[in-house]
Amino acid sequence: MSEDFKDKVVLVTGAGSGIGREAARLYAARGAQVFGADLNEAGLVETEALIRSAGWSIDTRRTDVSRETDVKVLIDHVQQSAGRLDIAFNNAGITGGTHRIEEYPVEEFDRVIAVNLRSVFLGMKHEIPAMLRAGGGVIVNTASVAALTGPGGMSAYAASKHGVHGLTRVAAMENAARGIRVNALAPGWTETPMVVANSAQNPAFAELARTAIPAKRGGQPQELAEAALWLSSNASSYLFGQMLVVDGGMTI
Ligand code: NAI
C-alpha cells in the first residue's frame, strides 16, 4: 500500500457516510493521521469501525459544520491533538428537497445554504490560520455538477454549490502565494446514501439520471474519493482554484 500521505494531518467533514467515509479510509490507508467530522454520530462510529478493522486509525468528532462554534472547536481539537493541520476536505453536504422556487420553503433554503456553503466558508476561515502556522496546506471543497448547471427544483442546492465554486476560487487567489492550495471536486451522480435515498423516493428521476450519463452508471464513492486525494496530493502541486468534474461524462 502506498504511503503518499504518511504523517499528513488530514481533516475530512462528512466522514460519516459516502464520499467522506471513503476518503477518510483512503487517507488512513495511505499513512495519514485522519480526523473525521460529521453531524451523524452513528455514521462516524461505522466509519471508525471500518477503518480500525483494517488496522488503521481515525479520530472522529460530532460536528455541525454550519455552526461556527462547532467548527472552531473541531479545528482547535485537531491542532491540539496533532500539532498542525495539513489537508482539509470540506465535504459535508445535504441536497434539500425538490421544489420550484416559488414553492421552496425559506427555512429549507437557508438550511441547505448553511450546510453546503456557510460550512465551507467557516471551515476555511479556521483552517487557513491553522495551515499558515504549519507552513502551508491544501484544501479541497466538495462542489457538484450542480455548480455548473441549473437542475430544476434544486435552487438551494445549485446556488450553494455555485457558491462553493466561487469561494474556492477566492480562497485559491488569496492563498496561492502563502503556501495553501485550494481546489474543488465536483461529483456527478455518485452512489452514496444521499443519492440512493433520493432515488428510492423518485425512481423515474434515478433512471433519467442514469440515461443522461455517458458512462451509463453512477460513480462509486471510491472513484470520487480518489479524485479528492489526488487534488490534495503533491501530484497536483500546480493546480490552483480549479474545479475537477468527476461525473462519468454527464456534463460533457
Ligand atoms: P452522504 O449523504 O453519503 O454524506 C454526506 C455526509 O454529510 C453525511 O454523513 C451527513 O451526516 C453529513 N452532514 C450533513 N449535514 C451535516 C452538518 N450540518 N454537519 C456535519 N455533517 C453533515 O452524501 P455524499 O454523496 O457522500 O455527499 C458528499 C458531498 O458530495 C456533499 O457535499 C454532496 O453535496 C456532494 N455531492 C454528492 C453527489 C452524489 O451524487 N452523491 C453529487 C454531487 C455532489
TrEMBL record:
Pfam families tied to this protein: adh_short_C2
Keyword Ribonucleoprotein: no
Molecular function terms, GO-annotated: oxidoreductase activity
PROSITE patterns the record matches: ADH_SHORT
Nucleus recorded as keyword: no
Keywords, in A-Z order: Oxidoreductase
Highest taxon listed in the record's lineage: Bacteria
UniProt record similarity statement: Belongs to the short-chain dehydrogenases/reductases (SDR) family.
Protein name according to UniProt: Short-chain dehydrogenase
Annotated source species: Sphingomonas oleivorans
